[in-house]
């Protein structure tokens, strides 16, 4: 063998010439030019320090050394094809784990049906859903996928808007606008905790009911919904959550609370991960149908 390294990409050229018998036919089979085929064959023969073909008037005929090369090259070709088939099969039978994080109500109301459908399609993928208030870092790989209402500005994150979530004001079932008008300005309300007091729905509520009396706070929309349903006070909630919570009715004050965008983000290094792509596609499809 010479010191010139063997180029694996030259083996398909060798196989094509061995099977077709001429440079022209081999070139047509591989979609390359005849001079290119000749140049790559010479490079392969130089790398092996062996004449692999006899040039005859009828075409190229394998030498003894070429016949040995053919046996090995065909085995390598078969292994490469088997690898391609196995990888393709793994993409169809997705396996592994995905960790995602979202708010509590979004996970229960919006995401759970999507994950149930995803499991039916890809039972080999285990999805771990985290709904605690902590902000998980995509850069540190604390999560594979993050869903949140704040846009992403990290340069390593690929983000897109998933859906627009409408909000509404809710009261306990059995209460109507007249019941709260009878209270005058002293309307009890349940709002976000002080750390989230600047959220748009809190501002809208206090502007719409400037003398409202805050009776409870929580960073959990689920908790706010339950407190409202139990008669503690009015609450601004995402409409999907309000519709799914027994014991609530919408209250119309003449204007609606501001809606919020839900964004999804994932690290750019994961953009070709098949199981993540499959989940993203299902999420986007499901969001479009809402």
Q: Any idea what the radius of gyration is?
A: 32 Å
Mean pLDDT across every amino acid position: 88
Whole-number count of domains: 3
* Proportion in β-strands: 15-25%
| Biggest sheet details | 5 strands, mixed
End-to-end C-alpha gap: 66 Å
Helix content: 40-55%
List unreliable stretches of 5+ residues: none
Order of helices and strands: HHHEEHEHEEEEHEHEHEHEEH
Strand numbers in spatial order across the main sheet = 4-3-5-12-6
Counted by DSSP, the helix tally is 10
Number of strands: 12
The CATH architecture category of the largest domain equals 3-Layer(aba) Sandwich
Find the CATH superfamily of the largest domain: Periplasmic binding protein-like II
CATH topology of the largest domain: D-Maltodextrin-Binding Protein, domain 2
Topology readout:
Layout: H1 11-20, H2 23-30, H3 34-48, E1 53-56, E2 59-62, H4 64-92, E3 96-101, H5 104-121, E4 125-130, E5 145-148, E6 157-165, E7 167-172, H6 177-181, E8 188-191, H7 200-208, E9 213-217, H8 221-229, E10 234-238, H9 239-244, E11 248-251, E12 260-267, H10 274-289
Parallel strand pairs: 3-4, 3-5, 8-9, 8-10
Antiparallel strand pairs: 1-2, 5-12, 6-12, 7-10, 7-11
Helix pairs in contact: 1-2, 1-4, 2-3, 5-10
Describe the fold and architecture.
The protein is an alpha/beta fold and 290 residues long. The protein has 3 domains: 9-85, Winged helix-like DNA-binding domain superfamily/Winged helix DNA-binding domain (Arc Repressor Mutant, subunit A), CATH 1.10.10.10; 92-164 and 261-289, Periplasmic binding protein-like II (D-Maltodextrin-Binding Protein, domain 2, 3-Layer(aba) Sandwich); 167-258, D-Maltodextrin-Binding Protein, domain 2. The chain contains 10 helices and 12 strands. It has helices at 11-20, 23-30, 34-48, 64-92, 104-121, 177-181, 200-208, 221-229, 239-244, 274-289; strands at residues 53-56, 59-62, 96-101, 125-130, 145-148, 157-165, 167-172, 188-191, 213-217, 234-238, 248-251, 260-267. A 5-stranded mixed beta sheet has the order 4-3-5-12-6, covered by helices on one side. A 5-stranded mixed beta sheet has the order 9-8-10-7-11, with helices on both faces. A two-stranded antiparallel ribbon has the order 1-2. Helix 5 (104-121) links the parallel strand 3 and strand 4 (125-130). The longest helix is centred in the first third of the chain and has 29 residues, at 64-92. It is rod-shaped and about 105 Å long. One of its GO terms (biological process) is DNA-templated transcription. Keywords: DNA-binding, Transcription, Transcription regulation. InterPro entries: LysR-type_TF_proteobact-type, LysR_HTH_N, LysR_subst-bd, WH-like_DNA-bd_sf, WH_DNA-bd_sf. Residues 6-63 form the HTH lysR-type domain. Belongs to the LysR transcriptional regulatory family.
């Amino acid at each position: 063998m010479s010191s010139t390294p063997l180029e694996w990409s030259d083996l398909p050229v060798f196989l094509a010439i061995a099977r077709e018998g001429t440079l022209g036919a081999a070139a047509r089979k591989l979609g390359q030019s005849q001079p290119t085929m000749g140049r790559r064959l010479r490079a392969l023969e130089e790398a092996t320090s062996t004449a692999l073909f006899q040039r005859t008037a009828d075409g190229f005929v394998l030498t003894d050394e070429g016949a040995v090369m053919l046996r090995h090259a065909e085995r390598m070709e078969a292994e490469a094809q088997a690898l391609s088939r196995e990888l393709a099969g793994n993409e169809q039978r997705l396996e592994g784990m995905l960790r995602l994080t979202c708010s509590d109500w979004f996970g229960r109301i919006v995401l759970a049906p999507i994950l149930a459908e995803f499991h039916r399609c890809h039972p080999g993928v285990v999805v771990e859903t985290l709904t605690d208030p902590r902000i998980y870092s995509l850069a540190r790989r604390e999560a594979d996928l993050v869903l949140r209402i704040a846009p992403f500005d990290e340069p390593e994150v690929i983000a897109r808007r998933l859906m627009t979530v409408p909000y509404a004001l809710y009261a306990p079932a059995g209460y109507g606008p007249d019941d709260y008008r009878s209270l005058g300005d002293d309307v009890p309300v349940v709002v976000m905790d002080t750390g989230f007091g600047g959220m748009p729905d809190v501002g809208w509520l206090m502007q719409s009911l400037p003398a409202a009396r805050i009776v409870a706070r929580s960073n959990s929309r689920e908790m706010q919904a339950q407190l409202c349903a139990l008669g503690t006070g009015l609450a601004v909630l995402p409409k999907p959550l309000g519709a799914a919570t027994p014991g609530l009715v919408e209250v119309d004050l003449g204007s609606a609370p501001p809606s919020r965008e839900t964004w999804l983000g994932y690290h750019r290094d994961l953009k070709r991960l098949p199981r993540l792509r499959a989940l993203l596609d299902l999420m986007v499809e499901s969001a479009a149908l809402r």
